[in-house]
Design a protein that fits this description.
The chain has two domains: 2-23 and 282-313; 35-273, Immunoglobulin-like (Sandwich), CATH 2.60.40. The chain is α+β, with helices and mostly antiparallel strands. Helix content is 23%, strand content 34%. Bound molecules: calcium ion (CA) (2 copies).
């Protein structure tokens, strides 16, 4: 009897460990960060000039307003389209205190500027070395950075990576990027971030994209909790509107068709109404395993004690 219980305990713990290991091995942004939606492909020409082309009305709209370390002051909305092998990102940032960056700051610490950042992980996995960061500040200064040594700051260095523009508007500024990505039909992990400098450069806050893993903002380089988007997988935009395919591609997709937006509709995609394509989180699996192990351990202790008592009596 004692042997059987011991075996059962070992089997349960082994199963739990395999389950946890499996969840770690297969975990990626698409599981933990959540799915935002499909970026419509389009054949309409888009001009990268910091102004919102009418076709963006049918782009995937993503809010950038979630707290990272402290309450944010500047928030914004980005609209995404895929055309001609490029991901177009138009962002409108609401910032009541737009501060002109100084050149020294741009060269040394461009994140301490009023700026918009777009992070891409083309493999949509947990590997931070795959992430590339594109930034445009309120004055149109570009930077591209990764954690493998890439540090291309300024127009000369950055122009080979993407095209970009920025424009100041009432109550803030707009940025626009066209990033070449070979990703049609694929899922890619993303993070969107707004840096906000205020009266004192020391006073810097960050607004982030929503991550289901935190139920709030993600973190600049925490790729494992990035949400993800699909690229032209099942929607196409033209100036007549957005068409969502009845039979989504690639195979296996079962997205909820979204209501067709109308030009000027700024409501966009509600980050809380994303497709649910998640599994159990590692934390939940860990809790289940610990509870299971505790129950079995308690049962074993009770049985052993019961046997000892009955042995003493005998
Ligand atoms: Ca434009
Ligand atoms: Ca600011």
């Amino acid at each position: 009897m004692k042997k059987a219980i011991r075996k059962l305990t070992i089997l349960t713990l082994t199963a739990c460990m395999i389950l946890m290991l499996g969840s770690v091995v297969t975990s990626h942004a698409s599981v933990w960060g959540g799915y935002i939606g499909d970026v419509p492909k389009t054949e309409v020409d888009i001009t990268v000039d910091g102004e919102e082309d009418p076709i963006y009305a049918y782009g995937l709209s993503i809010e950038v307003k979630y707290e990272k370390d402290r309450p944010v002051k500047a928030t914004g909305t980005a609209k995404l389209l895929y055309a001609d092998g490029k991901l177009f990102v138009f962002a409108r940032v609401n910032d009541n205190d737009v501060r002109e960056p100084d050149q020294e700051g741009r060269d040394t610490s461009p994140w301490i500027t009023d700026s918009f950042e777009f992070f891409i992980n083309l493999d949509n996995d947990d590997d931070v070395s795959k992430v590339k960061q594109y930034r445009v500040d309120c004055g149109g200064w570009p930077t591209v950075y990764d954690q493998n040594g890439l540090r291309d700051y300024g127009p000369k260095a950055a122009e080979k990576h993407f095209t970009y523009a920025a424009k100041k508007v009432d109550g803030g500024y707009c940025t626009e990027m066209a990033i070449p990505v070979d990703a049609l039909g694929k899922d890619i992990g993303v993070n969107l971030q707004i840096n906000d400098v205020n009266t004192d450069a020391e006073e810097l806050t960050w607004a982030m994209v929503y991550s289901e893993a935190t139920d709030g903002g993600t973190d600049s380089w925490s790729v494992g909790i990035y949400p993800y988007i699909s690229i032209g997988a099942y929607s196409e935009a033209s100036l007549d509107g957005k068409v969502v395919q009845e039979t989504p591609t690639p195979e296996g997709y079962t997205p909820e068709p979204t209501a067709e937006p109308t030009p000027g509709d700024d409501e966009g995609t509600d980050n809380n109404e994303k497709d649910q394509r998640k599994g159990l989180s590692p934390a939940v699996i860990a809790v289940i395993c610990v509870l299971a192990a505790a129950v079995i351990a308690a049962a074993v202790i009770m049985i052993v004690r019961g046997k000892k008592k009955s042995g003493n009596k005998a």
